[in-house]
Design brief:
Blueprint lengths: L1 H21 L4 E16 L11 E8 L7 E3 L4 E2 L7 E11 L10 E13 L28 E2 L3 E4 L5 E3 L16 E2 L20 E5 L6 E5 L7 H4 L2 H10 L5 E9 L5 E11 L1
Parallel strand pairs: 4-6, 8-14
Antiparallel strand pairs: 1-2, 1-5, 2-3, 5-6, 7-10, 8-9, 11-12, 11-13, 13-14
Length: 271
């Protein structure tokens, strides 16, 4: 009887183990992936009518060459996409054995960036000079109202920077001119305006203190305050201007080809 019980238990454990081995498992593989400098548009799984387009990355993987796929900006764990850049990545792809009902059957995580290249602007001659605002050429369908920024800043003699509503910004070296997306999704060109040629990669700075027009890079969310208002101008505002005096700056946002998109103006007032 004891032998029979032991044999029965052994067979039971074996069958359970065999069943466990038959359960589907995640498939993990390291692959190479290209990220295009242009962006695309995708739709939420439940947006079956395509009413709410979402800007996304355009990618190609080595095991599906020549096929461009859409992937959300947060679709690769550990990777931050910057518009206008072309990337070649090594990523860990996991094909889920039991994917969520409301999500993709695969996930990606960054292993390393193999190449990061800023797309150049071949159609702009290197000797082209921007001496005045009228020299700035606007891109197709521009100007248009896609971006907005705070319209007023206040600074005191100690160099503290505030928005015109009284809320404070970080220090001069860390403050940013934040660009907000305000384009109505009902605009007939909404999808087109999400592509790379309509992204504010640069800003031409029109300063009240000089006739020279400077070009600064906007980073991801807008230009740094110190790039728009250089130190000598900031000192002039904080130390030489009287309380209540203000000056007006303008930014002409420009795309990757340094062609204008939209003009934004703001004031800086001495506290």
């Amino acid at each position: 009887m004891n032998k029979f019980i032991i044999s029965f238990l052994f067979i039971t454990v074996f069958l359970v183990s065999a069943c466990s081995d038959d359960e589907p498992k995640d498939v993990v593989k390291e692959i190479k992936m290209s990220i295009l400098p242009e962006t695309g548009v995708m739709y939420d799984l439940f947006d079956d009518k395509g009413e709410y387009p979402i800007e996304c990355m355009l990618v190609m993987s080595e095991d599906n060459p020549g096929v461009v796929e859409h992937l959300g900006f947060n679709g690769i764990e550990g990777f931050t996409y910057e518009r206008g850049h072309e990337y070649y990545l090594s990523v860990r792809r996991t094909i889920l054995a039991n994917p969520p009902a409301d999500g993709s059957d695969r996930t990606y995580s960054l292993i390393r960036i193999l190449q990061d290249r800023l797309v150049t602007e071949p159609e702009i001659p290197v000797d082209k000079e921007i001496k005045s605002e009228k020299d700035i050429e606007y891109y197709d369908l521009c100007p248009f109202e896609k971006y907005a920024a705070n319209k007023g800043y206040i600074v005191d003699e100690e160099g503290k920077i505030l928005y015109d509503d009284g809320s404070s910004l970080p220090s001069y070296n860390a403050a940013r001119i934040w660009l907000k997306h305000v384009l109505d999704k009902g605009d007939s060109n909404w999808i087109k305006f999400q592509s790379t040629p309509y992204q504010a990669i640069y800003s031409f700075v029109l300063s009240p203190f000089t006739d020279d027009i400077r070009l600064v890079r906007n980073k991801s969310y807008g230009p740094m305050f110190k790039d728009v208002v250089p130190e000598d101008e900031f000192i002039r505002i904080t130390q030489s201007m009287k309380s209540g005096e203000e000056v007006r700056y303008a930014l002409i946002l420009a795309n990757i080809h340094k062609k204008g998109l939209q003009k934004l103006e703001f004031t800086i007032k001495k506290r």
